[in-house]
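queue> holo job accepted (4-methylsulfanyl-2-ureido-butyric acid)
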Amino acid sequence: MSRMIRVGAAQMGPVQKAESRQAVVRRMLDLLEQAKSHKCDLVVYPELTLTTFFPRWFMTDQAEVDQWFERDMPNEATRPLFEKAAEHGIAFSFGYAERTPDGHHFNTSILVDRGGRVVGKYRKVHLPGHDEFDESRAFQHLEKRYFEAGDLGFPVWRMLGGIFGMCICNDRRWPETYRVMGLQGVEMIVLGYNTPSVNSQRSEEGPEKRHFHNRLSVQAGAYQNSTWVVAVAKGGSEDGHPMIAGSIIVNPEGEIVAEAATEGDELIVHDCDLDATKFGKETIFDFKRHRRVEHYGRITDQTGVTSPPDV
Ligand code: CDT
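queue> job finished
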């Protein structure tokens, strides 16, 4: 079986608050058709693809909040995507807000195989932001209000002849995210993001620095675990709130091999050889030979910083 996978990173432009799921899915289908014409094996869409990035809005009415969540997947709005992708034999991944039957709320992404079957589910672990209205911020980021921290860890799945993992947006800034998947032999991590173009708590931190941190985090995660990473943005201005675009595909040496040029709906395509992960995994990042877990206890024993005592 070939280990070459043609990946389409399906960046999405803004999704306005008033835009329906059906309209968004039509845009996803357009990108899927482009992917078909490029003979892609896999298409990756962003975090919370189906809606605007609603955690920027402060809401107190749970019924209003729940309107942004999906109770089933696939559902009526997304079924055309599942059916068309299966017809084309294209695997895909996208993010959405998940409400479970017993009332839990997660920022979720799924991995769907060529036959339209959901083979993997991931729930965002590192939720950024805050849970109450914060008047000191230029705008709100209320993920901690609307979502619970993911309860599934960082699993990986076999698909398309390789080993795949997922994470979501802020997760990409945390080395633990990649390493937990790296320790399971991950060969391709797919992730979506909605990153505001300006830091809400530091106005001088604009798009240039935001792109820098995006690339820095993704490239480091790829290199240090010798894995492909496909990082896909929602970009442009959602109801006056600009987000960086800059979707990238990064190879196992940490190099950017494809990058979006616009802030809108845009497919970037790259042939990813999963066997290119082998060299790093068998040499400098051969974990079995080189990791020294006896010195890593703090990584799982503590969260905050424990400074040395004053002298
Ligand atoms: N959606 C999401 O996780 N956004 C965060 C913003 C955090 S502010 C640095 C991100 O990591 O891009």
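queue> The chain has one domain: 4-292.
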